[in-house]
Design goal:
Elements (H helix, E strand, L loop, with lengths): L1 E4 L6 H8 L3 H8 L12 E4 L8 E8 L5 H7 L5 E9 L5 E2 L5 H9 L3 E7 L9 H8 L2 H18 L3 E5 L8 H15 L4 E5 L17 H7 L2 E4 L17 H14 L5 E6 L2 E5 L9 E3 L1 H11 L4 E3 L4 E7 L5 E5 L3 H14 L3 E5 L6 H10 L1 E2 L8
Parallel strand pairs: 3-4, 3-16, 3-17, 4-6, 6-7, 7-8, 8-9, 9-10, 10-16
Antiparallel strand pairs: 1-2, 4-5, 11-12, 11-15, 13-14, 14-15
Helix pairs in contact: 1-2, 6-7, 7-8, 9-11, 11-12
Length: 379
C-alpha cells in the first residue's frame, strides 16, 4: 500500500489524479475532512488492493466510557476488546468494572471477544506493588481470584482474561509466572493473556521489568501482549512514544523467548505535546493522532519525520508564544510497525488504546492482513 507525504501545493484532487484514485477513496482510507487543507509533511494512504499476509489477531483496550460511535467504528477491525479494568483487593476479591455489560454485548455482536482486564490498579489510579505481593504470596487469595473470575466470566459472557500486573517485586518473578499458569488451568477453556513491560534483554533492571519473565510467561499464558511503547512518556523528555529502533529491540528479544503464534506486539494510538524547554516534573499532554495534525494546521507547523524512530513530529508556538514539541503516530509510522509484525511473523497486535479513532491504522491492518474474528458459540 502506497503512502505519500504531503508537499507544498498538494490537494486531495491532485494526489488522487496522480495515483488514479478518487477524492472519496482518499477520504475514506484516511478518515479525513475533505474541506480542511492538507498539512505539509503529513501522510496519506493511497488505497489499493493487494494480497494479504495472512491472519492477524487485533486486541484493543478501552475504558467503559468509550464514545459509542468510536466503539462501533472500531469493532470491525478487532479480534478482542479488552475492557480496562477489574481490580483486586488485598484479600483477593474482585473490584468490578461498572457498565461493562453493554460493551460485552456490542463486542459479541461484531464477532469480537470481550476480555476482562485484571489489574492491581488501586483506588489512587496507580498500580499497587503491595497488592501484587499480597496476592502472589497467598494460594488462598489466588484461589479466590480464580473463583470470582469464573463467576464473572460465566455471568457476563467474557471471552477470557487479560492480566496486567505491574511493579511486582523481583523476588516474586516465578510466583507471577505460577499465578498466570494457575489462572490458565482454572479458567480453561477461556484464554488467559498476560501483558508484559517492554524489555530488551533478560537482565533489564527496574521494578517495572524484573518480575516480567518473557520465557516463563510464554509457557504459562495462552497469549503474551508485549508493550513496546512509552519511550516518550508523560514525565519524560520529548521523543517518539514508540520509536521503531526501540520497538525492534523489544520484539527481537520477545521472539527469542515467546513463540510467535502466542505473541501480540503492542502499538500506541496516541502522542504527546510537550512544552519547551522541557522541565522535569511538568507533564506532557496526551493527544490523539488527528488532534496532532489539527494542531500543526492551526499553528502553521510543518510536520517532520524522524527516519531512525520512523515517527512524525513538529514544533509550534501557541497563542502565548510558548513553544511546544509534538510526537505522534501516522500512516508511515504504522506502516513501519506492521512491516515488523509481518517480518517477525507474530500472531497479532495490541492497541493501547482505542478511545480515539484513527482510520489509517485500521486501513493498513485491513489491507495487509485478514483480521481474525471470534463467534460466541466457540469462545
Amino acid at each position: 500500500m502506497t503512502i505519500v507525504t504531503i508537499q507544498p501545493g498538494d490537494s486531495l484532487y491532485k494526489i488522487g489524479k496522480n495515483y488514479g484514485v478518487s477524492v472519496d477513496q482518499l477520504v475514506k482510507a484516511n478518515g479525513i475532512d475533505p474541506n480542511k487543507y492538507l498539512v505539509i509533511g503529513d501522510s496519506l494512504i493511497i488505497p489499493s488492493r493487494e494480497e494479504t499476509s495472512g491472519p492477524i489477531r487485533v486486541n484493543g483496550y478501552a475504558y467503559p466510557f468509550i464514545n459509542r460511535e468510536v466503539l462501533q467504528k472500531t469493532l470491525p477491525y478487532l479480534t478482542y476488546l479488552s475492557l480496562f479494568s477489574y481490580g483486586v483487593t488485598a484479600e483477593g476479591a474482585l473490584v468490578p468494572l461498572n457498565n461493562d455489560e453493554e460493551l460485552i454485548e456490542a463486542a459479541w455482536a461484531q464477532n469480537v471477544g470481550p476480555m476482562l482486564v485484571l489489574t492491581t490498579v488501586d483506588e489512587t489510579g496507580g498500580f499497587n506493588s503491595e497488592r501484587s505481593t499480597q496476592i502472589l504470596q497467598s494460594k488462598e487469595k489466588q484461589q479466590r481470584v480464580a473463583d470470582e473470575l469464573k463467576k464473572v466470566i460465566n455471568e457476563k459472557g467474557y471471552h477470557g482474561v487479560d492480566v496486567d500486573m505491574e511493579y511486582i517485586p523481583p523476588d516474586l518473578r516465578q510466583a507471577y509466572v505460577d499465578f498466570i499458569y494457575f489462572l490458565r488451568t482454572e479458567l480453561a477453556p477461556h484464554p488467559v493473556f498476560v501483558a508484559l513491560a517492554p524489555k530488551t534483554g533478560p537482565e533489564q533492571r527496574g521494578l517495572l521489568y524484573e518480575a516480567h519473565d518473557y520465557g516463563g510467561m510464554a509457557v504459562a499464558a495462552d497469549s503474551v501482549l508485549v508493550m513496546t511503547y512509552e519511550w516518550g512518556y508523560t514525565y519524560g523528555p520529548p521523543m517518539a512514544v514508540a520509536p521503531l529502533n526501540k520497538v525492534e529491540q523489544v520484539m527481537n528479544y520477545a521472539v527469542a523467548e515467546i513463540p510467535p503464534e502466542k505473541l501480540l506486539m503492542g502499538i500506541p494510538n496516541y502522542g504527546y505535546d510537550w512544552r519547551l524547554p522541557f522541565e522535569k516534573g511538568r507533564p506532557a499532554r496526551s493527544i490523539g493522532n488527528y488532534e496532532a495534525v489539527a494542531l500543526a494546521r492551526k499553528y502553521g507547523a510543518e510536520i517532520q519525520f524522524d527516519e531512525e524512530a520512523q515517527s512524525p513530529w513538529f514544533r509550534y508556538y501557541d497563542n502565548r508564544a510558548q513553544q511546544h514539541e509534538v510526537w505522534f503516530e501516522d500512516a508511515r509510522s504504522y506502516q513501519a510497525k506492521l512491516a515488523l509484525v509481518r517480518s517477525l511473523r507474530v500472531s497479532g497486535v495490541s492497541i493501547w488504546n482505542i478511545m480515539r479513532f484513527f482510520q489509517p491504522l485500521y486501513t493498513l491492518l485491513e489491507g495487509y492482513f485478514d483480521i481474525v474474528k471470534i463467534t460466541q458459540k466457540n469462545s
